[in-house]
């Protein structure tokens, strides 16, 4: 394989046995929260609250960056993910510019990954506008790999549900996941073209509210990564977010920006493996959202 060949982030050798487990260790209040009507409970409010300015001393929120490069081959069957550090560096630069405090972790075991997720979800996010989590790893159908095992992707997200992380209730929680979700190739299809801020009340929101998950690919398919330039999804995500932040005119909400990312990945990329069975393949980004308002990463 060429040194500049595209690779995928699949679980090529099937699922390993789970390695250990970890339960949340902090006390969380389960009762209804007293919230500002203007910020949370007004159904006519179209935007999430954004405070200004943002800098290292006053961040917009935490960006948790989990970068899995190396794996225990015997326990996971997974190979080294060359090129992932390029993605991690791009994510860190982008979200620092967007005003986030980036917490970067590399090559976590399953136990350490679960501990980190639990600890971050137990932090007080009440002074932040939002939360971001970026995971760069191998994956398969419904799972994400740690260095010595795997966890269900839904478990990763569940740490930050409203009933487990009360200080993020009513705020956007955004997850960007670069990992395969199966072993199928997307071969593409040829298309012939034609030419009241002071009001206070007890407010109840669904635990699953205000969560956005952007996966690098749809369920069942490979996600592609170049060993030198990084992954298609993460590189385009950083390019689009940075361009929006640098714009002197109108800024766009995250769902609009992700539509641009999805379109660019779908139209501009094909795999370059040099192998007949995997050359010229495509990739489709998948976005799932329960956001109740428009979320902007730039004020």
TrEMBL record:
Protease is among the record's keywords: yes
Domain of life of the native organism: Eukaryota
Matching SMART domains: CASc
One annotated GO molecular function: cysteine-type endopeptidase activity
Keywords: Apoptosis, Hydrolase, Protease, Thiol protease, Zymogen
Keyword Glycoprotein: no
GO biological process, one term: regulation of programmed cell death
Caspase family p10 domain ranges (all copies): 201-299
InterPro entries: Caspase-like_dom_sf (IPR029030), Caspase_cys_AS (IPR033139), Caspase_his_AS (IPR016129), Pept_C14_caspase (IPR011600), Pept_C14_p10 (IPR002138), Pept_C14_p20 (IPR001309), Pept_C14A (IPR015917)
Gene Ontology CC terms: cytoplasm
Segments forming domain Caspase family p20: 59-184
UniProt similarity note: Belongs to the peptidase C14A family.
Name of the protein this chain belongs to: Caspase-3
Gene name tied to this protein: CASP3
